[in-house]
Amino acid sequence: MDISPGKLVETYGGRLFGLCVHLTRDRDAAEELYQETWVRVLMQLDRYRPDRPFEPWLDRICVNIYRDSLRRQKLRRSLPLPEDAEPEPSPYPNADLRMDLAAAVEKLPEKLRLAVILVCYQGLSEKEAAAALHISPGGVKSRLSRARKILKEALLDA
């Protein structure tokens, strides 16, 4: 595997940015997380073990940086969103259902939301998600099961 910085960004950049967007739900924050992740990856590249898959290692770094930022945010006061803030209408069919699902995913507890994002949105296997989250594959499976139950109830009530 070519581990030159340019090749890594070219190969994994789009997928990593998608993860950042899913995690932060904000383009500016996603760009910041994306850049911070690549800086950390490049600083720790000597710790990467080439006998292991690169993507879970990259995801783990990104998720850890995201979690650290959440901890810092909890220490600061957060400003409430304006009440008149409306999401932009979607040009896609079934947009209402997708928006309901996206809203329900956002309301999940953080541990469940991370599992859903990594497996359902990013396409990681349960084993890869487990590596990124530092839990067992059974833990990912359990979190996904609980998330599905909560999402099902939320969508049926909507």
Account of the 3D structure:
By secondary structure, this protein is an all-alpha fold. It has two domains: 82 residues, RNA polymerase sigma factor, region 2, helix turn helix motif (Rna Polymerase Sigma Factor, Chain: A); 65 residues, Arc Repressor Mutant, subunit A, CATH 1.10.10. Helix content is 72%, strand content 0%. It has seven helices and no strands. Helix 3 packs across helix 6 and helix 5 packs across helix 7.
Summarize the structure.
By secondary structure, this protein is an all-alpha fold.
- The 3D shape can be described as globular
Rounded to the nearest angstrom, the radius of gyration is: 17 Å
Q: What fraction of the residues are assigned to beta strands by DSSP?
A: under 5%
Instruction: Name the CATH superfamily classification of the largest domain.
Output: RNA polymerase sigma factor, region 2, helix turn helix motif
Average pLDDT value? 82
Biggest pleated-sheet summary:
none
- Please state the structural category: mainly alpha
Low-confidence stretches: 77-81, 90-95
Please work out how many helical segments DSSP would assign.
7
Overall number of domains: 2
List the helices and strands and how they pair.
Elements: H1 5-24, H2 27-44, H3 54-75, H4 95-107, H5 110-121, H6 126-133, H7 137-157
